[in-house]
Write a structure and sequence with these properties.
392 residues; alpha/beta; Rossmann fold; 2 domains; six-stranded parallel β-sheet; 16 helices; 16 strands; 41% helix
């Protein structure tokens, strides 16, 4: 089987946590979690080496020099952490690491996080020089990301026609990036084996509803809080994550003792809170400009932990999980209130929904299933996660 070189900023979880602990700013773990699981899927069928540009720069960390570090699979590139030297020294470090691999390996494939301009341009440059195919992993439309420049979007898009193929989360992303109709694979998401429920860890909060994710108004977080405040219940609302609404949420927690802000938590902690929740909520309002190019990955995680899911009607959910969640419609405040209130008045335990959601998401997105489809794809017999064979 081919040897895969995976270019990313994702790290081993314990190494990422160390970066987070020493960072001057809050880092978003969503890309870390997805790429780490995808790397694990590749290791199921291939020899994988990870070329990692750690999510560190002169604005996030004081240290001016970071040494090369290698644990067998993950190779953390050494670099000088200054504005002028970071890019140059990362590239130099990557070429030094890759040179002997390229010289001694005849069947190489590069896969790269297409949203990293530095790594995608590096992988394409080396791939073009040595005739190595480069596949892009595209997890979102760059223009939909927070706080990015037009120049960044342009540079991401300029690389699209240079890739040998694509791995994307949605058909919309594939149509957006893959304009030359190159080989492609659509993977809506990846879930790992669910953790055992640790009720003792959350006993002080039960019963509660849970939301975990980016804390932005456009993702429906304010709608959720406003709806919850109207509910006549002793249930708590636990919120984890970070974003522009952090201060707002802390203020609301002071005014309503049922609202609890957990801050940024680890993936294991996240799963424990989800697994023990009365319900896990995805309040993101529907937006065709966003929904075409993104997947509500938190909902897949909710399903995987067999919790009761409340969600707005994202097209992926209505198509693949229509009977496995309680609908929040378009995600308005009144729709969120009505759904939660109806649940509180009901005596149904919703066991069918919880178990069906877990069964369906594991059949679709469990790491071993994803690995099997990746293997078929790279053996030129690709299949998307809905199970429809595509012809390259």
């Amino acid at each position: 089987m081919k040897k895969v070189i995976y270019f990313t900023s994702a790290m081993m979880p314990e190494d990422f946590q160390e970066v987070v602990n020493n960072s001057l700013v809050t880092l978003n773990p969503s890309g870390q979690n997805f790429h780490y699981k995808l790397i694990n899927a590749f290791t199921k069928f291939s020899d994988v080496q990870v070329v990692c540009a750690r999510p560190i720069n002169h604005k996030t960390h004081y240290h001016t020099r970071f040494k090369t570090k290698d644990n067998g699979i993950f190779h953390y590139l050494g670099f000088k952490n200054t504005r002028l030297s970071r890019r140059r020294t990362l590239i130099k470090s990557a070429k030094k690491f890759l040179r002997p691999i390229i010289a001694t390996t005849s069947d190489l494939v590069f896969v790269v996080d297409a949203l990293s301009v530095l790594l995608s341009e590096l992988a394409l440059s080396i791939g073009n020089k040595y005739g190595i195919p480069v596949y892009a992993i595209l997890t979102d439309k760059p223009g939909n990301l927070s706080n990015v420049s037009n120049m960044y979007v342009k540079r991401v898009e300029q690389s699209f026609n240079k890739y040998s193929g694509f791995i994307t989360l949605t058909e919309g992303l594939d149509e957006y990036a893959n304009r030359s109709d190159k080989p492609s694979l659509i993977l809506p998401g990846i879930v790992r084996a669910p953790l055992k429920k640790d009720k003792k860890a959350v006993k002080q909060y039960t019963p509660y509803f849970f939301f975990g994710g980016a804390l932005y108004e456009r993702y429906g977080v304010k709608n959720l809080i406003e709806a919850f405040k109207l509910l006549p219940t002793k249930h708590k609302l636990l919120i984890a994550g970070h974003g522009e609404l952090t201060t707002y949420i802390k203020q609301e927690a002071l005014l309503d003792e049922r609202i609890i802000y957990l801050g940024l938590i680890s993936e294991d902690e996240y799963d424990v809170y989800v697994a023990n929740a009365a319900g896990a909520i995805n309040p993101r309002p529907l937006d065709k400009r966003i929904d075409l190019y993104s997947v509500p990955s938190k909902v897949l995680n909710y399903f995987n932990n067999a919790t009761l899911v409340f969600s707005s009607d994202h097209p992926l959910l209505t198509r693949l999980f229509p009977s496995s969640y309680i609908s929040l419609g378009v995600g308005s405040t009144i729709e969120i209130y009505d759904a939660l209130n109806a649940y509180l008045l009901s005596k149904d335990d919703y066991l069918y929904k919880r178990l069906k959601g877990q069964k369906d998401v594991q059949k679709l997105c469990q790491i071993d299933e994803v690995a099997a489809k990746l293997k078929l794809f790279f053996l030129n017999k690709p299949m998307n996660l809905e199970g429809e064979t595509t012809i390259l």
